[in-house]
Amino acid sequence: MKLFFASDLHGCVPATEKALAEFEQSGAETLVLLGDVLNHGPRNPIPEGYNPPKVAELLNCYADKIVAVRGNCDSEVDQMLLSFPMMADYAWVLLESGQRLFLTHGHLYNAQKRPILKQGDVIVHGHTHIPVAELDGELYVFNPGSVTFPRNGFAPSYGLLVDKQLKVMTFEGETIVSTNI
User: Fold this and answer.
1) Using an 8 Å Cβ cutoff, are 140 and 131 in contact?
2) Disulfide check for 176: which of 7, 134, 153, 168 has CB 3.0–4.6 Å away?
3) 63 in helix, strand or coil?
4) Tens digit of pLDDT for each residue in 102-146?
5) Residue 107 belongs to what domain range?
């Protein structure tokens, strides 16, 4: 199983185009969107190339490959533009190994505020815009960073799950962080 993770697109066309091109190149079967898809949010500047309808149009071309969760900047009005569901606060992916990926944006559940999970499960979230791939206690924490508004000096990034390795990558092909699960 190969999964591609993107978070915090915030309505930015150039960032979305980069993410979709990288998704195509990756050979991943599924594009996991971890929220804050169309709206820039009140705490963020308006990104260059801000065009939520165009981002929706681009993403809708991949609707049959997308698993998405709602971010704190996503609304029912945003959902009206998208042909794939994205209003759930969380979703699950079950791996062949029996491990579970708990997908969420990060504003309700995150590395510090966890749902009940079993040893070896992975909490996958965005929201902080900071890449993470690590074992924290009995759980793995994975955050692909942000495609549009990276923080703490990180480059724009996305995540991959390939075989049993989670990694966060820059668009220049550098691995920022990784862990085996």
Assistant:
1) no
2) 168
3) helix
4) 999 999 999 999 999 999 999 999 999 999 999 999 999 999 999
5) 2-180
